[in-house]
């Protein structure tokens, strides 16, 4: 709940009509008006011609923040990371759904995800990972038209008040430095043959 100058020390509440001890009396509200542009889809790509995941592979690895390139997919740092070392594994083809991938793309997406985990563990000692993809805008995909899998490294105690209260993510390293470290470590990573142990 927020407080306003409605009187010295008087909490300010937003009146909700006909609530009658409903949700507004139980839940506090965290207002996030900056997300409205995201919800409305403002500035979202309208096709492959302006899709960032289609444009990134045309850039140099440094400019595109690409860590590794495969035959059908590539690994890139997230420009808006949830944690330091947040990678995405992205097919070159502009397809929206996991079911649209070929068997070769599925295999390489899985292999690059495994390598991403090994590399981030080697470079930064990640304790765990959130691995996944949001399929469709309704499921939270920021760019729903081009499939991408997230690999977010996690450490014990990495969630704190800063993102919630301060609207700030604390990242200890700039993205270009992170990309260089991960790319160098990626090249040292021995490839794992399909069906092999990793």
Label this structure with key terms.
alpha+beta; HIT family, subunit A; disordered C terminus; 198 residues; 5 strands; globular; 7 helices
How would you explain this protein's 3D organization?
- This protein is an alpha+beta fold.
- The chain has a single domain, classed as HIT-like (HIT family, subunit A, 2-Layer Sandwich), CATH 3.30.428.
- Helices cover 29% and strands 13% of the residues.
- The chain has a 5-stranded antiparallel β-sheet with strand order 1-2-3-5-4.
- Residues 1-6 and 194-198 have low confidence and may be disordered.
- A motif (Histidine triad motif) lies at residues 146-150.
- GO terms for molecular function: hydrolase activity; nucleotide binding.
- Substrate binds at residues 78, 150.
Task: Give the uncertain stretches in residue-range form.
Answer: 1-6, 194-198
Total count of helical runs of at least 4 residues: 7
Mean pLDDT, all residues = 77
Class by SSE composition: alpha+beta
Listing every helix as H and every strand as E from the N terminus to the C terminus, the arrangement reads HHHHEEEHEEHH
Rg (C-alpha, Å): 21 Å
Oligomer: single chain
Percent in helix: 25-40%
With strands numbered from the N-terminus, the spatial order across the biggest sheet is: 1-2-3-5-4
Largest sheet: 5 strands, antiparallel
CATH class wording: Alpha Beta
Number of self-contained structural domains: 1
Global geometry:
globular
CATH topology: HIT family, subunit A
> CATH architecture, please?
2-Layer Sandwich
Q: For the terminal residues, how far apart are their CA atoms?
A: 49 Å
Protein name: Diadenosine tetraphosphate (Ap4A) hydrolase
InterPro entries: AP-4-A_phosphorylase, FHIT, HIT-like, HIT-like_sf
Pfam family, one: HIT
Keywords: Hydrolase, Nucleotide-binding
């Amino acid at each position: 709940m927020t407080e306003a100058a409605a009187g010295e020390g008087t909490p300010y509440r937003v009146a909700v009509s006909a609530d009658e001890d409903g949700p507004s009396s139980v839940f506090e509200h965290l207002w996030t008006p900056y997300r409205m542009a995201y919800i409305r889809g403002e500035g979202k790509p309208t096709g492959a011609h302006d899709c960032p995941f289609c444009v990134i592979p045309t850039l140099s690895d440094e400019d595109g923040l690409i860590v590794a390139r495969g035959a059908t997919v590539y690994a890139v740092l997230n420009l808006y990371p949830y944690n330091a070392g947040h990678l995405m594994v992205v097919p070159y083809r502009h397809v929206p759904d996991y079911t649209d991938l070929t068997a070769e793309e599925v295999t390489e997406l899985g292999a690059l995800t495994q390598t991403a985990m090994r590399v981030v563990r080697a470079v930064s000692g990640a304790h765990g990972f959130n691995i996944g993809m949001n399929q469709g805008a309704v499921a939270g995909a920021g760019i729903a038209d081009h499939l991408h899998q997230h690999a977010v490294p996690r450490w014990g105690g990495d969630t704190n008040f800063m993102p919630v209260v301060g609207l700030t993510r604390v990242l200890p390293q700039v993205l270009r430095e992170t990309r260089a470290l991960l790319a160098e470590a990626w090249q040292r990573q021995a490839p794992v043959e399909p069906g092999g142990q990793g």
